[in-house]
Amino acid sequence: MKTGRTKMRIANPMMSVPGAMQALLGLSEAAEKTGLDKNFLELVYLRVSLINSCGVCIDYHSKLLRKANETDERVYSVAGWRDVPYYTDAEKAAFALAEEMTHVHVSDDVWNEAAKHWNEAQLAGLTVAISAINVWNRLNVATQQKVA
């Protein structure tokens, strides 16, 4: 009986290309060093992963958030962040920035709103973090990585 699930096309490139895993992990670690809260970044990673339909990353970041005692409402409502009261204005600005960066166009309005909430180093860190999760998503989706 076919389940409709596809198998991985290749092994995870991050594990196959020497130095790739360390390089990409380094981007996320660098973003965290700008003073951005880890749970906040995990919510951003989850939002981007939902946009990109990366099941591996959705599963992973949801579990990390739950393990960090993030509330069910905040974890499970991230896709509808505009319509729920669970996020701060700063978090909403980050989600808007993450969405526009993922679609490779950032309007001045979205950029300026995000810039109201973080200093330059933190805003740079946020853009690096958003870029890093987009790389993870694209690699996982292209190679059809599966949740273990």
Description:
The chain is mainly α. Helix content is 64%, strand content 0%. The protein has a single domain (37-142), classed as Up-down Bundle (AhpD-like), CATH 1.20.1290.10. The protein starts with 12 loop residues before the first helix and ends in a 6-residue tail after the last helix. The model has no long low-confidence stretch (mean pLDDT 93). The chain is built from 8 helices and no strands. 26% of the residues are buried. Residues 18-100 form the Carboxymuconolactone decarboxylase-like domain. GO terms for molecular function: peroxiredoxin activity. This is Carboxymuconolactone decarboxylase family protein.
CATH domain class name: Mainly Alpha
Return the domain count.
Answer: 1
End-to-end span in angstroms? Answer: 21 Å
What is the beta-strand fraction?
under 5%
Q: Could you tell me the number of beta strands?
A: 0
CATH architecture: Up-down Bundle
Task: Give the count of helical stretches.
Answer: 8
| Structural class estimated from helices and strands | mainly alpha
**Mean residue pLDDT:** 93
Radius of gyration based on Cα positions: 16 Å
Question: So what's the overall shape?
Answer: globular
Low-confidence stretches: none
| Helical percentage | 55-70%
CATH fold type = AhpD-like
Main β-sheet, in a few words? none
Protein name: Carboxymuconolactone decarboxylase family protein
Domain Carboxymuconolactone decarboxylase-like: 18-100
Pfam families: CMD
GO molecular function, one term: peroxiredoxin activity
